[in-house]
């Protein structure tokens, strides 16, 4: 049976500053680096040796993956980067402090923007500081101006089917180092989490989530490798 590990990046500087990050390329804090190294040690202790690591194009995820592989003694594992594994685009909330935004718009509204399945934040105005249209990493791509978890899943799922599923179906173990919402999208798909329950799913930073899959790529077991920092997992279901 193939094994899959989902690894949310370690604490970033904007996690620490309580700001909406999205596609902004923020680096890890010292604690985030330590979380990534601990994740690698836990991966090694679990006897997990992936054939490949998939990650986004944002350095908080790419560096988390690299630090984890290094700590696990797996420096030779090939790495594939793709923007479709990026964090969700936070639109007009990008760069704002979360507490100040809640004080302005109300905690309930901010919770809807952050955690609901299909209600995106207000769009990002073009031409501003956080406009990614000129970023060469996204050349030729249709850049969103905001995303919900649903539209994040809409871009993650084709990449999952195209690039990741064939490796798993070949029996390979796979590591994905990415972001809270791109990984929540994968969890929603795999575990068959209903739209109205995905709001309750949270993935801790820097804690590897190991998922055991059957031949049909349905989860038959799942656990966080650091049980002291584990979040509640969805029940195993039909999923994909």
Automatic annotation (TrEMBL):
Pfam families: His_Phos_1. Keywords: Gluconeogenesis, Glycolysis, Isomerase. Gene3D superfamilies: Phosphoglycerate mutase-like. The active site is at 9 (tele-phosphohistidine intermediate), 87 (proton donor/acceptor). The record marks 179 as: Transition state stabilizer. Its EC number is 5.4.2.11. It is an enzyme of class 5 (isomerase). It catalyses: (2R)-2-phosphoglycerate = (2R)-3-phosphoglycerate. InterPro entries: His_Pase_superF_clade-1, His_PPase_superfam, PG/BPGM_mutase_AS, Phosphogly_mut1. Substrate binds at residues 8-15, 21-22, 60, 87-90, 98, 114-115, 180-181. Pathway: Carbohydrate degradation; glycolysis; pyruvate from D-glyceraldehyde 3-phosphate: step 3/5. Catalyzes the interconversion of 2-phosphoglycerate and 3-phosphoglycerate. Homodimer. HAMAP family: PGAM_GpmA. Belongs to the phosphoglycerate mutase family. BPG-dependent PGAM subfamily. This is 2,3-bisphosphoglycerate-dependent phosphoglycerate mutase. It comes from Brevundimonas denitrificans. The gene is gpmA.
